[in-house]
Protein backbone atom coordinates (compact mmCIF):
# COMPACT_ATOMS: atom_id res chain seq x y z
CA UNK A 1 0.00 0.00 0.00
CA UNK A 2 0.97 3.60 -0.44
CA UNK A 3 0.83 4.21 3.30
CA UNK A 4 3.90 2.05 3.92
CA UNK A 5 5.91 4.13 1.48
CA UNK A 6 5.25 7.22 3.58
CA UNK A 7 5.84 5.46 6.94
CA UNK A 8 2.15 5.65 7.84
CA UNK A 9 0.52 2.70 9.54
CA UNK A 10 -1.78 0.76 7.23
CA UNK A 11 -5.47 1.18 8.04
CA UNK A 12 -7.55 -1.92 8.59
CA UNK A 13 -8.80 -3.55 5.41
CA UNK A 14 -12.42 -2.87 6.33
CA UNK A 15 -11.72 0.83 6.97
CA UNK A 16 -9.85 1.19 3.68
CA UNK A 17 -12.54 -0.63 1.68
CA UNK A 18 -15.25 1.53 3.25
CA UNK A 19 -13.30 4.71 2.50
CA UNK A 20 -12.35 3.74 -1.08
CA UNK A 21 -15.79 2.33 -1.89
CA UNK A 22 -17.51 5.36 -0.42
CA UNK A 23 -15.33 7.80 -2.32
CA UNK A 24 -15.72 5.94 -5.63
CA UNK A 25 -19.47 5.65 -5.00
CA UNK A 26 -19.80 9.39 -4.30
CA UNK A 27 -17.80 10.23 -7.42
CA UNK A 28 -19.95 7.87 -9.49
CA UNK A 29 -23.19 9.38 -8.18
CA UNK A 30 -21.84 12.88 -8.86
CA UNK A 31 -20.66 11.93 -12.36
CA UNK A 32 -24.00 10.39 -13.34
CA UNK A 33 -26.65 12.44 -11.55
CA UNK A 34 -25.15 15.95 -11.31
CA UNK A 35 -25.68 16.73 -14.99
CA UNK A 36 -28.43 17.55 -17.44
CA UNK A 37 -30.52 14.77 -19.02
CA UNK A 38 -28.85 15.10 -22.43
CA UNK A 39 -25.37 15.87 -21.13
CA UNK A 40 -22.36 13.60 -21.15
CA UNK A 41 -19.45 14.98 -19.18
CA UNK A 42 -16.32 12.96 -19.97
CA UNK A 43 -14.19 14.96 -17.55
CA UNK A 44 -16.19 13.49 -14.67
CA UNK A 45 -15.68 9.97 -16.01
CA UNK A 46 -11.95 10.70 -16.29
CA UNK A 47 -11.85 11.81 -12.66
CA UNK A 48 -13.76 8.70 -11.63
CA UNK A 49 -11.33 6.51 -13.63
CA UNK A 50 -8.26 8.18 -12.12
CA UNK A 51 -9.68 7.85 -8.59
CA UNK A 52 -10.56 4.21 -9.21
CA UNK A 53 -7.04 3.54 -10.50
CA UNK A 54 -5.43 5.24 -7.52
CA UNK A 55 -7.62 3.61 -4.89
CA UNK A 56 -7.82 0.05 -6.22
CA UNK A 57 -4.65 -0.72 -8.18
CA UNK A 58 -1.39 -1.97 -6.68
CA UNK A 59 0.31 1.09 -8.27
CA UNK A 60 2.27 -0.69 -10.96
CA UNK A 61 3.20 1.74 -13.74
CA UNK A 62 1.55 -0.26 -16.52
CA UNK A 63 -1.87 0.26 -14.94
CA UNK A 64 -1.70 3.86 -16.09
CA UNK A 65 -2.13 2.82 -19.74
CA UNK A 66 -5.84 2.79 -18.87
CA UNK A 67 -5.70 6.57 -18.52
CA UNK A 68 -4.54 7.01 -22.13
CA UNK A 69 -8.01 6.06 -23.36
CA UNK A 70 -9.53 8.71 -21.11
CA UNK A 71 -7.04 11.32 -22.36
CA UNK A 72 -8.39 10.95 -25.89
CA UNK A 73 -11.83 12.18 -24.89
CA UNK A 74 -10.75 14.41 -22.00
CA UNK A 75 -7.31 15.97 -22.45
CA UNK A 76 -7.31 17.53 -18.98
CA UNK A 77 -3.87 18.79 -17.88
CA UNK A 78 -4.04 16.78 -14.63
CA UNK A 79 -4.79 13.58 -16.52
CA UNK A 80 -2.05 14.36 -19.02
CA UNK A 81 0.38 14.90 -16.12
CA UNK A 82 -0.60 11.67 -14.36
CA UNK A 83 -0.11 9.45 -17.41
CA UNK A 84 3.59 10.16 -18.12
CA UNK A 85 4.20 10.82 -14.42
CA UNK A 86 3.92 7.10 -13.79
CA UNK A 87 7.22 6.65 -15.63
CA UNK A 88 8.95 8.01 -12.52
CA UNK A 89 7.92 4.77 -10.81
CA UNK A 90 10.41 3.00 -13.10
CA UNK A 91 13.36 5.12 -12.01
CA UNK A 92 16.03 3.26 -10.07
CA UNK A 93 16.51 4.41 -6.52
CA UNK A 94 20.18 4.85 -5.69
CA UNK A 95 20.99 4.40 -2.00
CA UNK A 96 20.56 7.62 -0.05
CA UNK A 97 18.91 9.52 -2.91
CA UNK A 98 15.35 9.16 -4.10
CA UNK A 99 12.82 7.60 -1.80
CA UNK A 100 9.37 6.43 -2.82
CA UNK A 101 8.02 9.82 -1.76
CA UNK A 102 9.32 11.71 -4.81
CA UNK A 103 7.98 9.35 -7.52
CA UNK A 104 4.62 9.08 -5.79
CA UNK A 105 4.47 12.87 -5.46
CA UNK A 106 5.12 13.28 -9.20
CA UNK A 107 2.65 10.54 -10.10
CA UNK A 108 -0.21 11.38 -7.72
CA UNK A 109 0.23 14.69 -5.90
CA UNK A 110 1.27 16.84 -8.88
CA UNK A 111 -1.82 15.87 -10.95
CA UNK A 112 -4.03 16.49 -7.91
CA UNK A 113 -2.53 19.97 -7.47
CA UNK A 114 -3.00 20.66 -11.20
CA UNK A 115 -6.61 19.48 -11.05
CA UNK A 116 -7.43 21.62 -7.99
CA UNK A 117 -5.71 24.63 -9.60
CA UNK A 118 -7.64 24.15 -12.84
CA UNK A 119 -10.94 23.89 -10.96
CA UNK A 120 -10.21 27.09 -9.03
CA UNK A 121 -9.16 28.86 -12.23
CA UNK A 122 -12.27 27.66 -14.04
CA UNK A 123 -14.55 28.75 -11.18
CA UNK A 124 -13.10 32.26 -11.15
CA UNK A 125 -12.79 32.36 -14.95
CA UNK A 126 -16.47 31.48 -15.44
CA UNK A 127 -17.55 34.04 -12.85
CA UNK A 128 -15.43 36.67 -14.56
CA UNK A 129 -16.85 35.75 -17.99
CA UNK A 130 -20.43 35.95 -16.71
CA UNK A 131 -19.80 39.44 -15.35
CA UNK A 132 -18.28 40.61 -18.64
CA UNK A 133 -21.01 39.21 -20.91
CA UNK A 134 -24.03 40.83 -19.29
CA UNK A 135 -26.53 42.41 -21.62
CA UNK A 136 -25.94 42.66 -25.36
CA UNK A 137 -22.42 43.98 -25.14
CA UNK A 138 -19.32 41.95 -24.58
CA UNK A 139 -16.34 43.33 -22.71
CA UNK A 140 -12.86 41.96 -23.07
CA UNK A 141 -10.66 41.87 -19.99
From TrEMBL:
TM region(s), chain numbering: 13-33, 45-64
Key words, A-Z: Membrane, Transmembrane, Transmembrane helix
The keyword Membrane appears for this protein: yes
Official protein name in the record: Uncharacterized protein
Organism this protein belongs to: Candidatus Filomicrobium marinum
Amino acid sequence: MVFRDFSIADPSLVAYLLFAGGLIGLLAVWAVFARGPDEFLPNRMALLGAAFLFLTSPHYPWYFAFLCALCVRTPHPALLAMTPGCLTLYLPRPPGCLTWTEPYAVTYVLPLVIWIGMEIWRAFGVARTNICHQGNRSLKL
